[in-house]
Each structure stands twice: as C-alpha cells, then as structure tokens.
Specification:
- The protein has one helix at 199-211, and strands spanning 11-16, 27-31, 36-40, 46-50, 60-65, 71-75, 80-84, 91-96, 105-110, 116-120, 125-129, 136-141, 151-156, 162-166, 179-181.
- It is mainly beta and 214 residues long.
- It has a single domain (11-183), classed as Methylamine Dehydrogenase, Chain H (7 Propeller).
- The strands form four sheets. Strands 4-3-2-1-15 form a five-stranded mixed beta sheet, with no helix packed on it.
- Strand 7 (80-84) and strand 8 form a beta hairpin.
- The longest helix has 13 residues, at 199-211.
C-alpha cells in the first residue's frame, strides 16, 4: 500500500495559534506539496513559519499542540513526528523517531492517559507513544485490527474510546483539505504558557503590572 496521490492543494491542515505565542487570529497551515508550514494573519496575508526541510520536515500532514504548548507536525515522507517552538517555528527535536512499524504518519492525538496516538497510513495501525518523551510503547491498534485500513485521522470520544476517521478516496484532480483543527483559547492567567497556574504566573503578572503599559 502506498500513500494516496494528493491533488494540487497546499492547505492540508490548519491550526489557530494561541495569542501568547503569536499574533491573535493567526493561522498555521500545512503545505503537503511545498513541505512547509505557513502562517496567515487575520487579513489572509501569508508568510513562512517553518521552511521546508527544517528538522527534516517533508510532506507535513497534521498539526497538534502538545501539553507543553509546542507544535507537533507529522512528517509523512520521513516517517516521523517533529516538534517546533510555537513562538517562532524553530526546530526543537524529533519527537517520534521512524521505526516500530510507523509508515506515513498522518495524525497525532493525545489520549486521556497523556500518551500520544499516531495513525500510520501505510502500515494500517495506530501506535502509542509516551506523551512526554515520544518513546514507543506499543501498537495500540495492531495491523488491520478490526478491519483498520489506511487510517488518516483519529480522535478520542467523550468516554475515552479511540475513534478513527477513515480516509476518503481522492483522485489526482481533487483539492481536498483533510485535517483542520481549531485550538481553544488558552487560559489568559497562564502567563508563561506552561499549561498550569503556579507562582511563576503570579510573579510574572506582578512584574508586568509594575512595569505598566509601554
């Protein structure tokens, strides 16, 4: 099985960016054919955010926010998941390395247990990884278990069960976005964007308050 041929479409996944990391209402968009990540402002003006090849980026397919408020990108052509700084697009690390049956990773979702679940399009499986280190745990859904075939996206239901969204057949003349994710507005009191409220947020607020407006 091979990755289906995509149409001439650049917008394959989109993610709204939390205000503390970039300008409010910015949108990050995967470029399947261009192998980069672009940023668009509220007026629709685009600019480069993550250039092709940075950290090994090739044929990005989906965007996910990590619990650490970093950007995780599935890189289909390199069979890996890459991590970037959400503030400036700089490369941090290869979050999930190739191997363990991972072939053409198409989406990543964090489960209720805090682990990362990655759909593997070309190997018909869903792998589970440590949500902090990216270390492989197991094949959560083994090869073609229950008839799984070419999974593209996965989400968790409200009861904690994994729900897979199967790919739809696309011909070479069809422009079809496949993954759009709108991120909820983050807690404004979490000033350092750590994902939790703590003393650092309080003291940062006091410093900012004392400094006053520019």
């Amino acid at each position: 099985m091979s990755m289906r041929t995509r149409g001439a479409v650049i917008l394959l996944a989109a993610l709204t960016v939390p205000a503390q990391h970039a300008r409010a209402d910015d949108l990050l968009v995967c470029g399947w054919l261009s192998s980069d990540i672009a940023r668009y402002d509220a007026q629709g003006v685009g600019s480069s955010f993550i250039p092709a090849g940075l950290g090994g980026l090739a044929s990005p397919h989906s965007l996910t926010l990590s619990p650490r408020n970093t950007l995780l990108v599935t890189s289909v052509a390199t069979n890996s998941v890459l991590e970037y700084d959400l503030r400036d697009g700089s490369f941090i690390r290869v979050f999930i390395e190739p191997g363990n049956g991972l072939a053409a990773p198409t989406s990543l979702v964090f489960g209720p247990d805090g682990n990362a679940y990655v759909t593997s399009f070309n190997s018909d499986r869903v792998n589970r990884y440590d949500g902090q280190t990216g270390a492989f745990i197991d094949a959560f859904v083994p090869f073609r278990e229950g008839g799984l075939d070419a999974p593209e996206m996965a989400r968790f239901d409200t009861d904690g069960s994994l729900v897979d969204v199967f790919a739809t057949t696309q011909d070479t003349d069809t422009d079809a976005p496949i993954d759009i994710l709108f991120v909820p507005t983050p807690c404004r009191a979490d000033i350092d964007a750590s994902g939790s409220l703590d003393a650092d947020d309080f003291f940062t607020f006091l410093d900012e308050f004392a400094a006053g407006c520019p």
